């Protein structure tokens, strides 16, 4: 299987490691706003309409195996299909010589995790609001036979209106009740018991157990 990922944008030969470069003739890169073992997230502005976006920048050196490529292709395919008010939107995908770039909705309020650390606890009214929004996003995914598999406060972002957006679909997958999954994935502090016990699972039950850990 080829490890080449088809781009939805024209390839740009400019290196985008420096800030303030223009990507795909319309995105002005401003600064790094997040970084993990797999990708960096950069804030950028669409110079055509002024919209802020988040660029998830994935070096091709991270796509060294067929499974890594399949995972990225799956993330892109599902994000293109998902449309929900409490799930981060994917606008488009582009490719440079050495990087794949996902152009995502920018959610300026930061992570729910940081909010929890700063506030220590929520008022009951706000907790109920967030609970409903998380359940709404998960129900939408599960009704579409999708599971997130990395539900945690770090992957829940707060927008300018104080609403939650579920992000980071790197472990998303289809599920069905006839063929159970067996991949251990997600974050160790939040994974469902069946994953820890190396048992096969369907998916939705694990997502809901994740939710109860931190609500």
Describe this entry's structure for a reader.
It contains five helices and ten strands. α3 runs antiparallel to α5 (204-214). The termini are far apart. By secondary structure, the protein is of the alpha+beta class. It has two domains: 22-105, Phosphorylase Kinase, domain 1 (2-Layer Sandwich), CATH 3.30.200.20; 112-214, Transferase(Phosphotransferase) domain 1 (Transferase(Phosphotransferase), domain 1). It is globular, with a radius of gyration of 18 Å. The strands form three sheets. The chain has a six-stranded antiparallel β-sheet with strand order 1-2-3-4-6-5, with helices on one face. Strands 7-10 form a two-stranded antiparallel ribbon. Strands 8-9 form a two-stranded antiparallel sheet. Helix content is 27%, strand content 23%.
List keywords for this structure.
disordered N terminus; Transferase(Phosphotransferase), domain 1; single chain; 215 residues; Phosphorylase Kinase, domain 1; alpha+beta; 6-stranded antiparallel sheet; 5 helices; 2 domains; two-stranded antiparallel ribbon
What layout of secondary structure does this protein have?
Layout: E1 22-23, E2 27-35, E3 40-46, E4 52-59, H1 66-81, E5 90-95, E6 99-105, H2 112-119, H3 124-143, E7 146-147, E8 156-158, E9 164-166, E10 173-174, H4 193-196, H5 204-214
Helix pairs in contact: 3-5
* Global morphology: globular
What are the low-pLDDT stretches, counting only 5+ consecutive residues below 50? Answer: 1-16, 210-214
Biggest sheet strand line-up: 1-2-3-4-6-5
Which strand-content bin applies to the residues?
15-25%
Largest beta-sheet details: 6 strands, antiparallel
Secondary-structure element pattern, one letter each: EEEEHEEHHEEEEHH
Mean pLDDT across all amino acids:
82
CATH superfamily of the largest domain: Transferase(Phosphotransferase) domain 1
Count of alpha/pi helices: 5
Number of domains in the coordinates?
2
Estimate the helix proportion, in percent: 25-40%
């Amino acid at each position: 299987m080829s490890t080449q990922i088809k781009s939805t944008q024209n390839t740009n030969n400019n290196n985008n490691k420096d800030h303030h470069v223009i990507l795909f003739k319309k995105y002005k890169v401003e600064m790094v706003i997040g970084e993990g073992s797999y990708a960096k997230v950069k804030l950028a502005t669409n110079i055509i309409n002024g919209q802020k976006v988040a660029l998830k920048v994935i070096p091709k050196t991270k796509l060294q195996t067929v499974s890594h490529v399949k995972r990225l292709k799956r993330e892109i395919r599902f994000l293109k299909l998902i449309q929900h008010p409490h799930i981060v939107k994917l606008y488009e995908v582009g490719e440079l010589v050495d990087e794949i770039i996902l152009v995502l909705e920018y959610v300026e309020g930061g992570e729910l995790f940081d909010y929890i650390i700063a506030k220590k606890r929520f008022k009951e009214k706000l907790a109920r609001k967030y609970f409903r929004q998380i359940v709404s996003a998960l129900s939408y995914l599960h009704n579409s036979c999708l599971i997130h598999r990395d539900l945690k406060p770090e992957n829940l972002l707060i927008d300018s209106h104080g609403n939650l957006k579920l992000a980071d679909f790197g472990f998303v997958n289809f599920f069905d009740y006839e063929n159970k999954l067996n991949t251990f994935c997600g974050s160790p502090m939040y994974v469902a018991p069946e994953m820890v016990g190396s048992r096969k699972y369907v998916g939705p039950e694990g997502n809901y157990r994740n939710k109860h850990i931190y609500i």
